[in-house]
Design a protein that fits this description.
- Chain A: It comes from Oceanobacillus limi.
- Chain A: InterPro entries: ComF/GntX_DNA_util-trans, PRTase-like, PRTase_dom.
- Chain A: Belongs to the ComF/GntX family.
- The complex is a heterodimer.
- By secondary structure, chain A is α/β, with parallel strands linked by helices.
- Chain A is built from 9 helices and 6 strands, in the order αααβααβααβαββαβ.
- In chain A, the strands form 2 sheets. Chain A has a 4-stranded parallel sheet.
- Chain A is globular.
- By secondary structure, chain B is α/β, with parallel strands linked by helices.
- Chain B has 3 domains: about 100 residues, no CATH class; about 160 residues, P-loop containing nucleotide triphosphate hydrolases (Rossmann fold); about 170 residues, P-loop containing nucleotide triphosphate hydrolases (Rossmann fold, 3-Layer(aba) Sandwich), CATH 3.40.50.300.
- Chain B is globular.
- Chains A and B meet through loops of A and β5 of B.
Chain lengths: ~220, ~475
């Protein structure tokens, strides 16, 4: 087995534990794995950002902006954003190296929080526009959604526009809603996406779902930017 | 490879397209034409990944490793198929999309009467090598290895050969492993051939068009060419990554035309090439002396018994301290090679303090470190060249291709595995590069001689004796 990122051979030491309990296959070598940091410790109860406050300034701002009623009920993220993570995401999304997605599989499954899981929830991956999908040949959010043990529905579609990552914060927040509803859902929804940066995209999607009768919208994202 | 604005305004003729796309092997997304124009042009598809006897082969990079192929459930063709992970940085090669090459008329490259504007003179040994290169170009001799010691003036020896090729209307590519070298070589070539369009191709270059008659490219860029060059000059064939990456050899073989001349340049040929030379399988020419006619400096060895322990504790070894305190010519700048990036960064402040205490530098900022992951490395190398920096700690990235006029060279832990024979010969070759200061101290601090150290010194002595010293 080779490390997906640096292509070095991964050596697994044999011990009694892994003779009897074969471990989940590791996609990264130890050195590369150590470069990825999961979020832990004191963080915002609303968006998973690391902060000393119980609710971070970002979320307070959003609440105010939405007149006291934030459409996104909660976001949970797994990894912190650092240079290595940025390189990985670039290669995965923009270069289109599909395999790199599997790096996150185990952690993404293990960290799937119990708090936002209730019965009858539905996972909705954030879609790509058809043009972008054709260019990349896969949707990274859909890939992440597949890892989760809950039913996933492509309830949204997206109108082609500028890449989010090329916009400034102000542009993201003030831009028009790029999503269209394909089928309304009246159960609680967990939106899945790769990265939460300003939260604008997720709130656009959440607003649309809530307008059409969705009771609760959570989001589960790989990275808190 | 995009120049979108010009495309829409003027309808391109087939001649324009031939000039632009001849000799290239590209993905559809790299060909900047709309579907109508694309259909009308003479592009031929070839399968991008082929399967042969339980093997997959990427047709762009020649990758055959199973671990570097992966499956993707493709949403543009709705099938799950392979893609190549080896060359993905240059755009993804997928099984469902072919690669295209230009199958229309090939353009005639102009014949230049007097392309060379360089007026310098060559030494006798340089002239000999230069003559051999010209002969190789003239007779379309398939291969020639130019073995020239560090600082022999390889670039100047090429000028006559390139001139000849341009007079004959041939297309030429100089491929080198590192982008730094492309950036250094480009202005020199532009000066020497002032009327010829020359393009530099490397990751991050402004113009990645690659349509000039004379190209200077990193070896990776050759992956986008097929049967393109009459004369291919490969610089530093013994260097990383060309030496380790089979896909670059594959690419360089594909990039040249059927009737071609490939010229290899090296100061430290690897074993495989030496064997070929000894068996007379590979024509070669040896340039044993530097352009200023002085011998290569021979490294001195210095045994430090507790070297690894000292370095672990971040103590400079005692012998290193003694050497620093009484160098023969303290006016020279110092290059200190260390085996790892971590060590380079950790030792910098310690060595800076040491030098301050000896009064060799006046402030801490005159000492710094540089390595491959350093974002400021170009700036640091530049300021070392301008002598704003006195001492530079470096990993093996500065082992070749860079010239500083007057330096002393030290290697800390020369017995480390990253310093192989070629690396040590190259490192020793950094000293005494200029005719104003043709000597320089080279000292290897080690805790036990390795084969690499012994062979490196033996081969430097051999080269000197072949040069008549």
């Amino acid at each position: 087995m080779n490390c997906i990122w640096c292509h070095d051979v991964i050596m697994v030491e044999t011990s009694w534990i892994n003779v009897f309990l074969p471990p989940k296959p590791n996609r990264l070598c130890q050195a590369c794995e150590a470069e990825l940091h999961t979020l832990h410790g004191q963080r915002c109860s609303h968006c998973s950002r690391i902060t000393v406050d119980s609710v971070c300034s970002d979320c307070t701002w959003w609440k105010q902006f939405m007149n006291g009623n934030d459409v996104l009920d909660k976001n949970y993220s797994v990894f912190a954003y650092n240079d290595r993570m940025q390189e990985m995401i670039t290669k995965w999304k923009y270069r289109g190296d599909y395999q790199i997605g599997y790096v996150f599989q185990t952690t993404f499954q293990d960290c799937f929080p119990k708090i936002i899981q209730t019965k009858q929830q539905i996972v909705v991956p954030i879609p790509l526009s058809p043009e972008r999908l054709y260019e990349r040949s896969f949707n990274q959010a859909e890939m992440l959604a597949q890892f989760l043990p809950i039913k996933s529905v492509n309830a949204l579609s997206r109108i082609h526009g500028e890449k989010q990552s090329k916009k400034t914060r102000q542009e993201r927040i003030s831009s028009i809603n790029p999503f269209k509803l394909e089928e309304p859902i009246n159960k609680p929804v967990i939106l899945v996406d790769d990265i939460y940066t300003t939260g604008a995209t997720l709130r656009h999607a959440a607003a649309l779902l809530k307008e059409h009768g969705c009771p609760m919208v959570y989001s589960y994202t790989l990275i808190r930017g | 490879m995009t120049t979108p604005s010009t495309n829409q305004q003027h309808p391109l003729t087939q001649q324009d397209l031939a000039l632009r796309y001849t000799g290239k092997l590209l993905l559809r997304s790299e060909i900047d034409l709309d579907d109508d124009n694309f259909q009308r042009s003479n592009f031929s598809p070839i399968p991008s990944i082929i399967r042969r006897n339980f093997l997959f082969i990427c047709q762009r990079c020649g990758n055959q490793k199973r671990s570097l192929f992966a499956k993707i459930p493709c949403q543009s063709c709705h099938q799950t198929h392979l893609y190549c992970r080896n060359c993905i940085e240059m755009g993804r090669v997928m099984e469902c999309t072919p690669l295209y090459f230009w199958s229309g008329e090939s353009p005639n490259w102009p014949q230049h009467q007097r392309p060379c504007s360089w007026t310098g003179t060559l030494t006798e040994v340089q002239q000999h090598a230069s003559y051999k290169i010209v002969q190789a170009v003239l007779t379309a001799q398939p291969e020639l290895l130019v073995w020239a010691v560090c600082g022999a003036g390889k670039t100047e020896m090429l000028f006559a050969g390139i001139t000849k090729a341009l007079q004959l209307g041939k297309r030429i590519c100089i491929a080198t492993p590192r982008a730094d070298v492309v950036r250094e070589l480009l202005p020199r070539m532009k000066q020497a051939f002032s009327d010829i369009t020359i393009q530099g191709l490397y990751g991050g270059a402004e113009n990645k068009d690659g349509t000039a008659q004379l190209l200077i490219a990193t070896t990776h860029q050759l992956l986008r060419f097929q049967e393109a060059f009459d004369v291919l000059i490969i610089d530093e064939i013994d260097a990383f990554p060309f030496h380790n990456d089979p896909s670059l050899l594959f690419a360089s073989k594909r990039a040249r035309k059927k009737l071609h001349t490939t010229i290899y340049l090296t100061a430290t040929p690897r074993q495989e090439h030496r064997v070929q030379i000894d068996r007379n399988k590979l024509p070669h020419v040896f340039v044993p002396t530097r352009y200023h006619g002085h011998p290569l400096p021979i490294p001195t060895l210095s045994m430090c018994f507790s070297l690894r322990k000292d370095l672990k504790k971040k103590n400079p070894p005692a012998r290193f301290v003694r050497w620093i305190s009484k160098r023969g010519n303290p006016a020279r700048q110092m290059l200190i090679f260390v085996p790892t990036i971590g060590l380079a960064e950790e030792m910098t402040p310690i060595i800076a303090n040491l030098l301050l205490s000896f009064g060799i530098v006046t402030q801490q900022s005159e000492v710094t470190s540089v390595h491959s992951e350093d974002p400021n490395r170009e700036a640091k190398i530049k300021s070392f060249r301008k002598k704003h920096l006195r001492v530079l700690l470096t990993t093996t990235i500065l082992e070749r291709g860079v010239t500083f006029p007057s330096v002393d060279v030290a290697v800390l832990d020369a017995g480390h595995t990253v310093f192989d024979e070629a690396a040590l010969v190259q490192i020793a070759g950094r000293a005494g590069r200029s005719s104003d200061d043709p000597t320089g101290e080279v000292i290897f601090f080690h805790d036990g001689k390795t084969d690499a150290i012994v062979h490196a010194i033996r081969s430097i002595k051999q080269m000197n004796s072949r040069g008549g010293f």
